[in-house]
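hiii so my PI (J.) wants the whole complex modelled not just the main chain, which honestly fair. so below is everything: two entries, each one labled with what it is. i double checked the lines twice but i was tired so who knows lol
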Amino acid sequence: MKRPLIIILGLLIILILVGVWVYFLLTGSAENTEDQFGSLDFADTTDTSIVPVVTEEPESPTVALGDSDALQQLTTESVAGFTEVRYNASTTPRVHYLVSGTGHIFSIDLVSGEEKRISATTIPLAKKAALTPNGAYVMIQAGEGTNAEFIIGVMSTSSDKLSNFKLPEQNPVLSFAATHENEFLYVVADGNNSLAKAYNPRTNAIRVLFTIPFRDMTVQWHHTASGPHLVYPKTTSKLPGQLYSYKDGLRARLAVEGFGLSAVGSSRNIIASKVNQDGSYRTEVTSRVTDQVLQTPLTLLPEKCVFSTSKPNEAWCGVTLADYSRSDNMPDAWYRGQQNMQDALWSINTDSTVSSMIVNLSLDTGQDFDLIEPMFNPSTSRFYFKNKIDNTLWMYDLTR
Amino acid sequence: MRLGFFTLLFLLSVPFLSMAQIGFEPQNELTISPAYPKPGESFTVKVDDYAGGLFGAQISWYYNGAEVPNSLNQRSVTLNAVSLGQQGVVEAVFLTQTGAEQKLQKVIKPIYVDLIIEPQTRVPEWYEGRALPSFGSQINATVLVDDGDIVSPQNLIYSWSMNSKPVHGGPVRAQHKTSFPAPRGTDMILSVSVSRVNGEVLASRATRIPIVEPDLLFFERHSLYGLQKFPIKSSLGLIGNTVMIQAEPFNLDTRVYNRPDIATWDINGVETNNGASSPYQITLQPSGAGGTSRVNFHVRSLETLSQGVDSSVNITFN
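here's the output for the full assembly
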């Protein structure tokens, strides 16, 4: 074959290939984005009924619940409120928590670690929340001071919308909590007094529980509406405080008082801290039966303690080992945020004051740890708490 | 001369006349301290033998019928008050040298009379502690009586006094709450005596109330999360484009907080518009080269000049 003929045939082939390329360039674009990529033959992903459990990536993020570590960090976000929820005996336990600022509510399966958002309704400036253990209702404080609103939210079982409305109260709410009976307890100012009330979100009924004859008070709510609830004037090391118990609407004075008084109690014992006559800040246990007082070897803030729901003589507390003198201005400095703690978690037998450390939170987590809002689940198998530093939610699993 | 003699005679006789009129006679008695112990509180009983006749007597002590250990021939004993709703009977039995026996008795009914102090000064809403009074601010006080049963305030007489001066001009019925301005000084003593309508004194209580100066802390405020719980210590590094800072006065009279005569921000000594609806907030954004600016806030009443506070914080930015 002659050389020019070979060149002509080569050019002809090149022209044909260029023509084909131009044709596909102008007319052959994909109709949807999936066609732009080659099929890797993953089969029909819309058929959810045959998704293999083992190989499928989880659709929701999971919380890394370690197999052996009893101490678990449940959130990295700031939490306004939380509770443990168990819909019925056959379902796995879950933790529901409400995120500060947005008011979104998430649910963590405590067995699989699966986390999902169950309310995407934004409650701006959500600061504090109480959730009922049946997982159906939430009470939220949004905003602060005179701008604070108190909102009742009702969870939906079919969507991630939270129907919500304002708590029907004219006066500002000073303190609130949820009971194991799925009611909300709260206190409102009433002139120079305070009124404790119960709100049933199922019936929308409000009933008055008792009257507190002053306003600057701290309430340690019991998990039932009938109580006993512990009430004392807000704490300062410069003024005396006295401890009262309200049971079935009746007030009783307990044999606990002192400057800088704060307290937490069970049906059996009371843990109270106060400023002694020498100016030191100390902790003692008072028997509710005999009024006998025992000094504890540990000095602690009772706000960091909760009694076991099954053992009325056992309390778990966040404790920073220190001796506080008058110059430390405790507990006022802690309330102001000027005194941070490096807490370890301790178990205290309040009958004997024998104490044992469970875990050193600051050491084990490698961060400043200032334990607040401690809570046991009803069966005392899990202990929940927050870190005041960043408001994250943590759990100590007693079964691990 | 005669007039002077009779005047002197009259003056010398006045004490005897007075004693005769009120039937005053020195008596032997037991006195306790504190005068009105609380349930479970430790108290001391001592013998006051003003009438005499007990010199050299053997003294035995009994508490609710049981002999007090190690108390023989002691002139005072220390005991613990019984529980609320019960009564304790202390007896001192004297056996004189002539063989005569004399008994003195004191009945103690411990009672709770609680003074609850509520200063009407400002602390942040999230603050879990109690406010303290500052000069000129109102102080609310409530007294709660519990003798085993809750005693209705309607059936009691209250005698309030502040630094030994009566608050209501004298005893008042059913006034278990009172309100008064904090006096000048570093502290004050508030006392109250509670009586039944028949004049029986149930108890007296007193407490020292500190009067403090307002102070000020700065907190970072987030548009979504609100006020942070930890104050800015001495300086704050500005990371983003803007930062909102809130000045939180502690223990400032709530009336001054709500209507301050002066509420000004200045940056490096230059008064600045705070750019926020609340006078206690300021929004800051960096301009020019990086460095450190001193941000100052001043709040004050012009009526009561000590009702105010002035403080600064450093803001560092790049």
